[in-house]
Design a protein that fits this description.
The complex is a heterodimer of chains A (about 260) and B (about 750). Chain A is about 35% helix and about 10% strand. Chain A is of the alpha/beta class and about 260 residues long. A 6-stranded mixed beta sheet of chain A has the order 2-3-1-4-5-6, covered by helices on one side. In chain A, α4 crosses α5. The longest helix of chain A is centred in the first third of the chain and has 17 residues. With about 750 residues, chain B is of the alpha/beta class. Among the domains of chain B are: about 80 residues, Ubiquitin-like (UB roll) (Roll), CATH 3.10.20; about 210 residues, 3-Layer(aba) Sandwich (Rossmann fold); about 140 residues, Dimethylsulfoxide Reductase, domain 2 (3-Layer(aba) Sandwich). Chain B contains 23 helices and 28 strands. In chain B, the strands form 8 sheets. Chain B has a 7-stranded mixed beta sheet, with helices on one face. In chain B, a hairpin with an 8-residue loop joins β10 and β11. Chain B is globular and about 85 Å long. Chains A and B meet through α5 of A and α1 and β7 of B. The structure holds iron/sulfur cluster (SF4) and FE2/S2 (inorganic) cluster (2 copies). Iron/sulfur cluster binds next to α5 of chain B. Chain B: One of its GO terms (cellular component) is membrane. Chain B: It comes from Saitozyma podzolica.
């Protein structure tokens, strides 16, 4: 018996060695879609043919005030380069459309600037600050780039705090529709790390406690005081000023009399 | 200058204009020369030449993906890196102008290393599916990775390779976007040449993808060209998917006959089948493009063919031998008792020059002058006359239209009648700032035009300085100031009832402004033909005598005539149809004779410019069908009036006798200035009725179905459904029914 086994053993081994192992890599899909899909909250108002099952149209048009502003922006560029205004005008559209740029917003911009719609789609899908999916009124953009990750208590902690407090993950919105949270790259306020942007305001020097306070205030519809939450002014030394403590001298001081 | 131009174009954007504002990125090259050294070899190139071309001129090949000499420069693939002396980094040679005195090296370790690096990045996200990829064998990435690729990867992305969803661009272009290397050639072609401004890039960085962002077809009659342009297998051909590998194909250079442009093509065949049709470069005609009908109507060559002679017995066709069929014709001819002009020949759109000559000679020998063309009012002598060539040809020359600064289109839709010429119009619209105006039925154009009217009356009014678009109208001003104005009269106009009136008004206008229209280097008066056989038919005088229209024919010979008006064939006449498809013409026939299609015969084609070109045999004609002129020759023998040529050389001698231009291949013979003037004087003294205000009609309603070949083609039927009728059903990615994920 053992003789048989010892004969078979190398056979078995060689059979194993001859077996090829296939490895396949999983596909890496991008985080957000770079194509448009008609949904019941986002679909163009104009279409050649429309099926009865198609979702309802969500049109968009600039209101009178924004149109005026848009025209003012357009007037800053030479008339033949009207399309240069695409970014600010898209932003106007995004603001009017509750903070996100729907396909109809893009189409409206294309029409206003007389450019092929695809040129607008290209811009809107290139820049991450055009939200192509709806966002809640309190749009939390937490910076998680290295300086914010390292500075203060670190953005990882803040992220955890927000996620636990709101019960959502980055990239999601709360059920009550009040908050959307996303992670973003450096917003240029590294000296006050960690920080997040809510709407147009920066909240800096965050700690878990101040973060929750801000969230609670926002949930109640209040607007907490933006800026550093640690009480310091802008990015001054938090331990008090060590330099430039004296009164800065004004123009003309210490100059020859004729220049005073 | 450019600013002015753009401002003008902006101000003039009329309702019919496409959304495209002009691109202002290319200027006319300045022609001074610079000298530089490439790999130790001195070359002199015109100033403004890209370095990559200078290298090419010096005989050094530079690998490339994004650069294409007929498209704008993008400089985004970085494959074309070369070393330039005193430059700290390798230089992208396509995006760098050749500088005088610079020393360039294309074959140094630095260059190799740089290119290998680029290749490694390109391959990092490229699927390894060459065995099932249709581009295999003609893939730039495959070829260049042989030289610059590494045999193993250093990337082990745990998250996997980039995955991009496929786009559905319609019945022609098949996409496999994982393979895309973002060279943007397709985007540049679509925007700059084809005028489809919906194709672009969305997203950014690693996630950049090519597409339309929204679900849309690529609605262009030039879309097939992006398949050729794509350096990898991201865009491949749907009709040709998995049909053949390039190395299996026999390549035959020939001419396209589905419009009158005479695009140069390469017919790729395997055995007796045409597998695909590709463009052949000819700068004077089609550059490097062909339209989708030229490219994809070939599957029509497989269906509905006449492969054997057919003789009508009662109400059905019975296959017959050639002897029997020709004998039946002889008897039919004798019994019909046709005398003189009662013998009528009708030449269709796809009749080649050889058979036209043979048929004309035969009919003339039978004592008839009744040679008509398969077109509206084809049984009357053409208003243009056939005595002066410049009266019915595209005199300006296809290549030269780019120089025109103001173009007046009369009753023509170049997009459908001559898509290749139309693409040149877009080029001059974008790059040279040419202005366009149309009198005729509006069409969906890829350049902006002013619509000045619809009828012959509007033509006379505009040229006479009255009516819309004149006086304060913008185009009138442009027209007056134009240095190289151009008038294009559509073939449908000359066939219509107002033909004479229009030609009269136009020729008078041209003669009045002779200094601008007819100079030593410019001829601004052109007729745009739409059928491949027409120019040749006029050249050899395949036209009826004035009296013959009133004769009721007893014996009718239809040569490829498939647009025929049924009422023009008397019930009791004996009808012979010769052609390659069982299309409309065959239905009236008593005897059908199977001819060869353009891919199956060596024949001469004269394009709308009057340029004779040589069509070559790619595959044998199916069944017992024969070369068309041989059929006519054989018939002449049976009828007892043999034609005096037994082989194609003798026949071409005869063609030389009729008109030497017919056999001076590839040559554009421009008639002299004096002759053109004689021609115009003839036109201006035409006896014409007063121009009516009946609107001109587009002769082509459905671009994809204009002749027996394209009507028999399945691909063209799908295109017609998708683009003409706009009834395309997008394949659903999720259900995955149309394209398997690996395909
Ligand atoms: S699809 Fe082809 S031609 Fe278009 S960008 Fe990708 S690789 Fe280039
Ligand atoms: S890293 Fe967070 S703002 Fe710069
Ligand atoms: S060919 Fe030069 S960068 Fe692509």
């Amino acid at each position: 018996m053992s003789a048989v086994r010892s004969v078979l053993a190398p056979l078995r081994r060689s059979a194993l060695a001859g077996r090829r192992t296939f490895t396949s890599s999983s596909s890496r899909r991008s985080e957000s879609l770079f194509v448009h899909r008609d949904t019941d909250y986002n679909n163009p108002s104009e279409r050649d043919c429309r099926e009865p099952t198609d979702p309802v149209q969500i049109p968009f048009e600039f209101d009178a005030e924004n149109l005026k502003r848009a025209n003012e922006i357009i007037s800053r560029y030479p008339p033949q380069y009207k399309k240069a205004a695409v970014m600010p005008v898209l932003d106007l559209g995004q603001r009017q459309n509750k903070g996100w740029t729907s396909i109809s917003v893009m189409n409206a911009v294309a029409k206003l600037l007389e450019m092929p719609p695809m040129r607008v789609y290209e811009v809107a899908s290139f820049y991450t600050m055009y939200n192509r999916e709806p966002v809640a009124p309190n749009f939390l953009q937490l910076c998680t780039t290295s300086p914010c990750q390292l500075g203060g208590c670190g953005s990882t902690k803040i992220l955890e705090t927000i996620e636990n407090h709101l019960g959502i993950h980055a990239g999601q919105s709360t059920k009550d529709g009040k908050f959307t949270l996303i992670e973003v790259e450096c917003l240029g306020a590294c000296s006050n790390a960690p920080m997040m942007q809510v709407g147009d305001e920066y909240y800096e020097d965050l700690t878990p406690e101040t973060t929750i306070k801000i969230l609670n205030a926002l949930a109640k519809g209040e607007k907490p005081q933006p800026g550093p939450q640690s009480g310091r002014k802008t990015s001054e030394n938090s331990a008090g000023l060590t330099t430039l403590t004296s009164k800065p001298y004004g123009p003309g001081e210490f100059c020859l009399p004729e220049f005073q | 200058m450019l600013r002015q131009l753009a401002a003008r174009s902006l101000a003039r954007r009329s309702g019919a204009a496409p959304s495209g504002s002009r691109l202002l990125h290319s200027t006319r090259p300045v022609m001074a020369d610079v000298t530089l050294t490439v790999d130790g070899k001195e070359v002199t190139v015109p100033q403004g030449t890209a370095l990559i071309q200078a290298c090419e001129a010096a005989g050094a090949t530079v690998p490339r993906f994004c650069y294409h000499d007929r498209l704008a420069i993008a400089g985004n693939c970085r494959m074309c890196l070369v070393e330039v002396e005193r430059s700290p980094k390798p230089v992208a040679s396509c995006a760098m102008p050749a500088m005088p005195g610079s020393k360039v090296f294309t074959n140094t370790p630095l260059v190799h290393k740089a290119r290998e690096g680029v290749m490694e990045f390109l391959l990092a996200n490229h699927p390894l599916d060459c065995p099932i990829c249709d581009q295999g064998g003609e893939c730039d990435l495959q070829d260049q990775s042989m030289r610059y690729g590494s045999d193993r990867t250093r990337f082990h992305e745990i998250t996997g390779k980039r995955a991009v969803e496929n786009k559905d661009l319609g019945p022609i272009v098949k996409t496999s976007m994982n393979r895309c290397i973002q060279c943007t050639r397709c985007v540049r072609f679509a925007n700059d040449v084809a005028g489809v401004e919906d194709l672009g890039t969305s997203g950014r960085g690693n996630d950049l993808q090519i597409g339309m962002y929204i679900e849309k077809t690529m609605d262009s009659e030039m879309s097939g060209n992006i398949i050729d342009l794509c350096p990898v297998g991201a865009l491949t051909s749907k009709p040709y998917a998995f049909q053949a590998r390039p190395w299996e194909l026999k390549k035959t250079e020939s001419v396209d006959v589905l419009d009158a442009v005479g695009s140069n093509i390469r017919i790729d065949s395997r055995g007796v089948q045409v597998m695909r049709i590709q463009p052949k470069i000819n700068d004077e005609i089609n550059e490097e493009w062909i339209n989708d009908k030229t490219r994809y109507a070939y599957d029509g060559l497989r269906y509905q063919r006449l492969t054997t002679p057919l003789v009508r017995e009662g109400d059905k066709f019975v296959p017959a031998t050639w002897e029997h069929a020709l004998e039946t014709i002889r008897i039919g001819y004798q019994n019909s008792g046709a005398q003189g002009d009662e013998v009528k020949a009708v030449a269709g759109h796809l009749a080649d020059t050889e058979s036209l000559i043979a048929l004309k000679d035969l009919v003339n020998r039978l004592g008839s002058e009744n040679l008509t063309l398969d077109q509206p009012s084809g049984d009357a002598p053409p208003v243009t006359g056939v005595d002066v060539r410049s009266n019915y040809l595209f005199n300006t020359g296809i290549e030269n239209i780019e120089d025109a600064d103001a173009v007046l289109l009369i009753g023509t839709n170049p997009r459908h009648e001559a898509a290749i010429i139309n693409a040149r119009f877009r080029k001059s619209f974008l790059q040279r700032g040419a202005e366009f105006a149309l009198i005729g039925e509006k069409f969906d154009s890829i350049f902006a035009y002013d619509h000045l009217g619809t009828s012959a009356k509007d033509v006379a009014d505009f040229l006479g300085g009255k009516g819309k678009g004149s006086g304060k109208g913008e185009f009138a001003k442009v027209w007056k100031e134009a240095k190289k104005p151009m008038i294009i009269v559509g073939s449908a106009v000359t066939e219509g009832k107002d033909g004479a009136a229009v030609l009269k008004a136009v020729s008078q206008h041209v003669l009045k402004n002779e200094g601008k229209f007819l100079t030593s280097e410019w001829n601004g008066f052109s007729i745009l033909q739409r059928a491949a056989s027409r120019a040749a038919a006029y050249d050899i005088g395949f036209t009826p005598s004035p009296s013959s229209a009133s004769v009721k024919p007893k014996f009718v010979y239809l040569l490829n005539a498939d647009e025929i008006e049924p009422s023009s064939i008397p019930e009791d006449a004996f009808v012979v149809y010769q052609g390659h498809h069982g299309d409309l013409g065959a239905q009236f026939a008593d005897v059908c004779l199977p001819g060869a299609a353009y891919t199956e015969k060596a024949s001469t084609w004269v394009n709308t410019e009057g340029r004779a070109q040589d069509g070559r045999v790619a595959v044998p004609p199916p069944g017992v069908s024969r070369d068309d002129w041989k059929i006519v020759r054989a018939l002449s023998e049976v009828i007892g009036n043999p034609l005096p040529y037994d082989n194609v050389h003798q026949l071409r001698d005869r063609m030389w006798d009729v008109s030497p231009t017919l056999v001076r291949y590839d040559n554009l013979e421009v008639p002299s200035f004096e002759i053109q003037k004689v021609g115009l004087n003839l036109l201006s003294s035409l006896s014409a009725s007063t121009p009516s205000s009946t609107a001109f009609k587009k002769p082509i309603e459905d671009f994809y179905r204009t002749d027996p070949i394209s009507r028999a083609s399945v691909t063209m039927a799908a295109c017609s459904k998708a683009f003409t009728k706009k009834e395309y059903t997008f394949s659903d990615e999720e259900s995955g029914d149309k394209q398997a994920s690996f395909a």
